[in-house]
TrEMBL record:
Listed EC numbers: 4.2.99.18
Protein name in the entry: DNA-(apurinic or apyrimidinic site) lyase
Domain of life where this protein originates: Bacteria
GO BP terms: base-excision repair
One Pfam family per UniProt: Fapy_DNA_glyco
SMART domains for this protein: Fapy_DNA_glyco, H2TH
CDD domains hit by this protein: AcNei2_N
GO MF terms, alphabetically ordered: class I DNA-(apurinic or apyrimidinic site) endonuclease activity; damaged DNA binding; oxidized pyrimidine nucleobase lesion DNA N-glycosylase activity; zinc ion binding
Residue ranges of coiled coil: none
Broad enzyme group: lyase
Residues annotated as domain Formamidopyrimidine-DNA glycosylase catalytic: 2-101
Record-annotated FPG-type domain positions: 220-259
Native source organism of the sequence: Rhodococcus erythropolis (strain PR4 / NBRC 100887)
Family, per entry: Belongs to the FPG family.
Length: 263
């Protein structure tokens, strides 16, 4: 699933293509909103909120979420799309740009006053102007016996982290992802590391947590099952973790550097 930095960059690209310009095309290919046509109206702003995108047009807000496969792409008028047309969920065009949302997990047209219904549940945005580390740390403490690897993905705690970051942050703090949050050590330090790690990557197309941008060297544990730990040489292990089977994601950890601490 795309993480908050991916969505933040998508918002920047959409802002450059659409903001303060009049829509010449608004084609929503979702049955519930198929009759909505915002063409002729100006795009007032584009904002990311955690993993959510909000494109405000007059009294409407186009709310999208990439989920697992979604992507926004920007084209010149007449340029051939790089993904199949049947995957397009929404097309927004101006005189000089065409923005296409492909395979979006959520595509809905809200009234501006309904935005809070879509994103009001989110915790402080790690890449937003509302970031508040003290609130995020308080939210994390409230997770209590929930495994830290689940709490870090809970967007109500702090918005923006995905599976890559939760694995890397747990490694960097020497915590097994299944450790209960109240046994995970300095939670303020975990919040601070989360903020610093995602912010240093927000302008990169390739996510790097090791400081080494060379191919195959960008992560400590994520995607490295069976390979030697970059610190101690122990083989990286893989497991799954989530609040239920539908939301389980792979976890990667070094059993030597990240010993499990039970509740």
């Amino acid at each position: 699933m795309p993480e908050g930095d991916t969505v933040w960059r998508a918002a920047n690209d959409l802002r450059a293509a659409l903001a303060e310009k009049v829509l010449t095309t608004c084609d929503v290919r979702v049955p519930r909103y198929a009759t909505v046509d915002l063409s002729g109206h100006r795009v007032d702003s584009v904002a990311s909120r955690g993993k959510h995108l909000l494109i405000r047009v007059g009294e409407a807000s186009i709310h999208t979420h990439l989920k697992m496969e979604g992507q926004w792409q920007i084209y010149r008028p007449g340029e051939r799309w790089r993904r199949p047309a049947h995957q397009a969920r929404i097309i927004l065009a101006t005189e000089d740009s065409v923005a296409v949302g492909f395979s979006l997990g959520v595509t809905e047209i809200l009234e501006l006053g309904q935005e809070q219904e879509a994103v009001g549940h989110l915790g402080p945005d790690l890449l937003g102007t509302d970031w508040d580390s003290s609130v995020a740390a308080r939210n994390l403490r409230a997770a209590d016996s929930v495994p830290i690897g689940i709490a870090l993905l809970d967007q109500r705690v702090m918005a923006g982290l995905g599976n890559v970051y939760r694995n890397e942050i747990c490694f960097l703090r020497g915590i097994h992802p299944k450790t209960p949050t109240h046994r995970a050590g300095n939670l303020d330090a975990i919040v601070d590391l989360s903020f610093r790690t995602i912010n240093v990557n927000k302008s990169r197309r390739i996510r790097v947590t090791t400081g080494d941008t060379r191919p195959g060297r960008q992560t400590w544990v994520y995607g490295r099952r069976g390979k030697p730990c970059r610190r101690c040489g122990t083989r990286i292990r893989e497991d799954t973790l989530g609040p239920d089977q539908l939301t389980e994601r792979n976890i990667f950890f070094c059993p030597a550097c990240q010993p499990f601490t039970p509740g």
